[in-house]
Structures are given as C-alpha cells and as structure tokens.
Amino acid sequence: MPKPIYLDHAAGTPIDVRVFQAMQPYWAENFYNPSSLYEPARRVKKVIESSRAQVAQVLGAKPSEIIFTAGATEANNLALFGIAQAHPGKHLVASAVEHESVLEPLAELKKRGWKVTLLPVKADGKVELKELEQAITNSTVLVSVMYANNEIGTIQPLSDVRKLINKLRRGRKSLPLYFHTDAAQAANYLPLQVSRLGVDLMTLNGSKIYGPKQSGCLYVRSGVRLRPLILGGGQERGLRSGTENVPAIVGFAEALELASQLRTKESRRLPVLRDYLIKQIIQKLDAASLNGDAKQRLPNNVNFTIAGISGESLVHHLDSNGFLVATGSACSANNDRPSHVLEAIGLKPVQINGSIRISLGRNTTKADIDRFIAQLLPSVTKLRAFAK
Ligand SMILES: *Cc1c(COP(=O)(O)O)cnc(C)c1O
User: Fold this and answer.
1) How confident is the model at residue 335 (pLDDT cuts 50, 70, 90)?
2) 291 in Cβ contact with 354 (< 8 Å)
3) Which residues are catalytic?
4) Mutational pocket test of ligand 1: of 181, 202, 331, 339, the residue with most ligand atoms within 8 Å of the beta carbon
5) How far is the CA of 40 from the CAs of 29, 44, 243, in angstroms?
6) Dihedral, CA of residue 30, residue 33, residue 34 and residue 40, to nearest 10
7) Cβ of 195: how many Cβ atoms within 10 Å?
8) Which of 108, 136, 152, 277 could be joined to 292 by an S-S link, Cβ 3.0–4.6 Å?
9) Residue 378: CB atoms within 10 Å
10) 66 contacts 221 by C-beta, under 8 angstroms
11) Alpha carbon distance 210, 304 (integer Å)
C-alpha cells in the first residue's frame, strides 16, 4: 500500500522538521528544571523566556502576556474558568459553534451558578451582531467568539464583534467586559496581532500549526483579572503551575514563527486548491452541498453534505482506498452526538450524518486533490447504490 494521502489537517498536523530539531536539545541534554538555581538550569529558563518573546513578537504582545499551556483545550479552560472564577455569578456569552473545550466549561459553569448565553449563528456559521448586542447585559463579563471554525471553516467577523464590545464597554463603570477568541484553526492563515484584533484573551495551540501536541498558550492582556486552574509552584506568573514543558514550549514558539512566515504564501496557495476541490465536487457529484461560508472561509477547509450516504461509511471507504478525511469534527470522535456546529447552521440529522470534512495542508498538492476526486466519485456511487 502506498502512503495514504492525508486530508485532515484540521484535526492535526505533522511536526515540521525544523520544529522537531529545535526541540531536540531539551529532552536529555538540557533537561534541567528551569526553576533550579545553577547555571545550566538558568540557561533553560532563558530559553523559555526567549520562546515567550518569540510568541509575543508574532502576536504584537508583551512577553509577560503569554501563558504557556498544554494545548488549546487547557488555554480555553483557563480563559473561561479563569475569568468566571474572578467574577462570581456573572454572565458569559459565546457562540453556539465554539469548540467543545469552550462549550463544556460553559456548561459546567452554568451548573455552578454562572449565567451563560450561547448565540445562534446564521446558515453560513457566522454570529449575528444583533443577537450578540441583545445578549450582552450589564453583568456580562466575557464574550468568547472563535476566530475560525474547526468543522466548517467559517471565519467569524471579529472586527465587528470588537467594535460592538468596545461600544458597550463605554457605558461600563466597574465590571470589565472581556473579549476572548479561540484562534487554534486560524493561526496558519490569519493575522494574529492582538491589538488589531482587539482581544483580551486568545487561545493558540501547537498541534494545528505543525508543532507538538499538548503545546500552546493563552494570551492574557495586561490588567485582565483571572484565577488560575492549576495551583502549585507558581510558574507562568502563577497562572499555570507545574515544571515547564520546555521542549513543547520551544516547539510551539518555533512552529508559530514558521506559521507566521508561511502565512502569506499559504493563504494565497491553498484557497486556489480549496476552490478547485469545491468546484469539482459540485460539478461531478449530484446532491452535494457545501457547508459554511463560501468566501469567509479558512483556506484549507472543505465541508460537504452528500445526499444518500453516511459520512462515516464514506470516511471508511476512502480510508481503505488511501485517503484520510474526517466526518463532522475529529475532536468529537469520542462521543456519538451529532455535530453541534452542523446542527447550529440548521442541518437536519440526515444531512449531518452525510457530511465530510476535507482539510488541506502544507504538503497538499493539486495532484493529491485530483487523485482524491478520482476516488471520491466511485466511493460515493458505490455507497449510494449500497444504501438503496
Ligand atoms: C483543536 C482545537 C482545539 C483543541 O486543541 P488541543 O490542543 O487539542 O487541546 C480547540 N479549539 C479549536 C478551534 C481547535 O481546532
């Protein structure tokens, strides 16, 4: 069997060899606890601080505003629980299409007595500004709207959200109104300068940007008040105790810098491939419809509902023929619930069941797409015939 063609970059990316090399010295050779006092340990501490500066540089932030975490799930939990616990009983708002690592903490906070509003989205997956304006009350302390969706690729109108939040802030006396965004899927392709985005908190991770899994950070603007989730030795300004995962930190910083260098190139190259794939599927398959916005869409995301098939069967059929794609979201592979994102954009259960996500990446070529299309058609025909 030849190596399968990987088209599931929204679920995870292979580590870049340069990232891998940058991490190499920090497993055995420079293993020291960065908090120890002797010279070799102090050097490791300096490496963490230069990684922090490297990340801060890409975001246009201060190094002290970067809190390293073990991935985006932890960063989202820190943002939500952290802000909530610093503001007992207040109100939190998020879109209905957020990642589970935002929605589950919110569900838990609701059980514990906070007020929570989930905003509906339009058929293209974008939040409605009117709904957001109505949702925000005088007791709202946090609005969380993701930068781009992991399932359908829709890019949220963050600059409109920022303007609205700024407007509503002006009427406030004491309670802050914070703006958080989960940028895990956006980091390869979209601008990340926090001042331009106007965010107070931003989640990033390594595993979607050709860095190590369980690496990432939460950007926390100076002055934002939040409580830690993990207490202990006081690392990461007391917001994330525990001996630092130095290879992960170094790898994440390197991956983020590489992503920012490749951003322009990839956000020109991939939309061409993406739109070619979308067009081919629409032309060659009947009863296939694109999910998500056609334009405000991640350069690497394609998500289709194909009538008359089950997405799961199609994924397996494609897998046995050398193509790796996803049904719904790979992140929710551990539960049998239908995709909350496809539900939120108004798809019926049978349509949700017949959906697949194809996500391109740095190594994807036009030849890969052509081979994929050549396999998709017979696979769908076969499954449709079988279903009759
Ligand atoms: C992958 C992903 C996460 C979770 O990231 P981990 O690093 O696996 O914890 C959170 N949000 C979005 C939008 C994602 O795509």
Assistant:
1) low
2) no
3) 331
4) 331
5) 10, 7, 16
6) -50
7) 10
8) 152
9) 11
10) no
11) 25
State whether the beta carbon of 105 lies less than 6 angstroms from ligand 1: no
Of ligand 1's atoms, which has the minimum distance to the CA of residue 215? 7
Neighbours of 197 (CB within 10 A): 23
Q: Return the best residue to mutate from 80, 101, 210, 217 for the ligand 1 pocket (most ligand atoms within 8 A of CB).
A: 101
| Whether residue 185 has its Cβ less than 6 Å from ligand 1 | yes
> Ligand 1 centroid to 153 CA: how many Å?
13
Phi and psi torsions of 184, nearest 5°: -55, -40
Give the whole-angstrom CA distance, residue 245 versus residue 188. Answer: 23
Measure the CA–CA gap between 224 and 222, rounded to whole angstroms: 6
Residue 329: CB within 6 Å of ligand 1?
no
Q: Which residues pair with 182 in a beta bridge?
A: 203
- Please state, in angstroms and rounded to a whole number, the distance separating the CA atoms of residues 293 and 193: 24
pLDDT digits (tens, 9 = 90+) for 243-300: 999 999 999 999 999 999 999 999 999 999 999 999 999 999 999 999 999 999 999 9
**Atom 10, ligand 1: which residue's CA is nearest?**
72
Residue-wise pLDDT for 56-114, tens only, equals 999 999 999 999 999 999 999 999 999 999 999 999 999 999 999 999 999 999 999 99
pLDDT above 90 covers what percent of the chain? 95
Q: How far is the CA of 185 from the centre of ligand 1 (A)?
A: 8
Q: Is the CB of 164 under 6 A from ligand 1?
A: no
Beta bridge partners of 311: none
Mean pLDDT of the chain: 96
- DSSP notation for 190-240: S---HHHHT-SEEEEESTTTTS-TT-EEEEE-TT-----SS-SS-TGGGTS
Q: With contact defined as beta carbons under 8 Å apart, do 56 and 190 qualify?
A: no
Alpha-carbon distances of 21 from 9, 11, 25, 55, 124, rounded to whole Å: 21, 23, 8, 18, 41
Nearest CA to ligand 1 atom 5: 72
Instruction: Enter the pTM of the model.
Output: 0.97
**Ligand 1 in contact with 266 (CB < 6 A)?**
no
User: Within a 13 Å sphere around the CA of 162, how many CA atoms are in the beta-carbon half?
Assistant: 15
